[in-house]
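dumping this here so i dont lose it
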């Protein structure tokens, strides 16, 4: 059991599992299995007395994924307070690169799919899947300098923050301020309880935190803000010490269960039987904006940031290292899939093609990153061997 959990905490295996789940979802959606699987995903489960009645697919994207965002937010909290982003100096260079990795994909997308029917999909190619990116780095990047991994980690974390802001601001609807206020009160209570954990009655406090966390999720869902934001709020509010323990305990469940299940459901789309010319501009916009936009944005803005921040010293990252980081940044998957579902929630046909665009764009970036990262790592190994 401990070996399997350690495997799920590794960087390589969860990325492979996520990719396999997405491939399985796409496969079953395009076989005779489509109808029975779709019937399960579209069946509804209600909570009596609350007015909440969600399909199984929405329970996964609104419910289970909130746990993923809870873990992400705990990691963000750590990096912002003790890690790679805990000072302005540390955060400046990856922040500039992240800005390029968001702005350029948006421009690429809007140039291709800026029409009235598809323009709302511009946030989709802005995300980086940190699990996938670090997984590729772990598999192909042996020998790369630590500066590359630190830079990519900070970049992906900042991308997560931007994606979270997009979800909270752009996809809120019919805000209910009373429910939002109750959610905020619940978050405060949750944070207070977490700071009592080192004291007695730990089991009771943990149980109380779980109940409060569920109530916060419920109030956020009823407030009109996407329910995954509840996980973000709770993850940022929890005290540091229990946060680290919670991350360690939840990581195998998130990597081995929640993310693959979400990837399966999100990728469960029918490939349209049309010629390439008949595909939606959203498909092409995302499929190009993820690999091309991310590479250009991260490389150019990252080069500017590194040159400005080097203060006359040789920069820690070369232009080729930044290209490698840019290809890794183009792997969208998890958050991009969620954004695709949200951006085209009222247009199923465009939503499905946007999801296909995420899968194609991420796979292109995945292939490019494997080639470029392995080549760059080999070069660094040769330089290290020659100098030793």
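and the seq i came up w/
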């Amino acid at each position: 059991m401990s070996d399997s959990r350690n495997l799920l905490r590794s960087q390589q295996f969860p990325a492979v599992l996520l990719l396999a789940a997405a491939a399985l979802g796409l496969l079953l959606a395009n076989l005779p299995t489509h109808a029975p699987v779709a019937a399960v995903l579209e069946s509804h489960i209600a909570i009596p007395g609350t007015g909440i009645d969600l399909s199984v697919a929405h329970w996964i994207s609104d419910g289970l994924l909130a746990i993923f965002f809870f873990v992400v937010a705990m990691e963000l909290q750590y990096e912002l307070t003790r890690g790679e982003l805990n000072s302005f100096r540390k955060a400046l260079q990856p922040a500039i690169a992240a800005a390029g990795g968001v702005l350029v994909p948006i421009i690429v997308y809007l140039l291709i799919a800026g029409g009235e029917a598809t323009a709302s999909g511009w946030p989709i190619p802005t995300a980086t899947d940190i699990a996938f990116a670090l997984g590729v780095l772990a598999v192909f990047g042996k020998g790369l300098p630590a500066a590359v991994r630190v830079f990519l980690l900070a970049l992906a974390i900042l991308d997560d923050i931007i994606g979270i802001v997009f979800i909270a601001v752009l996809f809120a609807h019919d805000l209910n301020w009373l429910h939002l206020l109750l959610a905020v009160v619940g978050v405060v209570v949750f944070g207070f309880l977490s700071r009592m954990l080192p004291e007695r009655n730990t089991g009771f406090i943990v149980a109380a935190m779980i109940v409060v966390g569920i109530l916060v999720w419920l109030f956020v869902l009823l407030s009109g803000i996407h329910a995954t934001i509840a996980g973000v709020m709770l993850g940022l509010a929890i005290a540091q010490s229990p946060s680290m323990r919670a991350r360690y305990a939840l990581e195998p469940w998130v990597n081995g269960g929640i993310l693959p299940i979400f990837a399966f459901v999100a990728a469960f789309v029918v490939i349209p039987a049309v010629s390439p010319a008949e595909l939606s501009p959203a498909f092409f916009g995302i499929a190009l904006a993820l690999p091309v936009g991310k590479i250009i944005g991260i490389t150019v803005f990252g080069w500017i940031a590194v040159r400005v921040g080097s203060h006359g010293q040789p920069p820690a990252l070369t232009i080729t290292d930044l290209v490698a980081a840019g290809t890794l940044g183009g792997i969208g998957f998890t958050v991009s899939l969620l954004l695709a579902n949200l951006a085209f929630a009222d247009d199923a046909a465009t939503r499905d093609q946007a999801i296909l665009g995420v899968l194609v764009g991420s796979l292109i970036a995945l292939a490019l990153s494997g080639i470029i990262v392995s080549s760059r790592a080999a070069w660094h190994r040769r330089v290290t061997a020659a100098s030793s």
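The CA atoms of residues 145 and 380 lie 8 Å apart.
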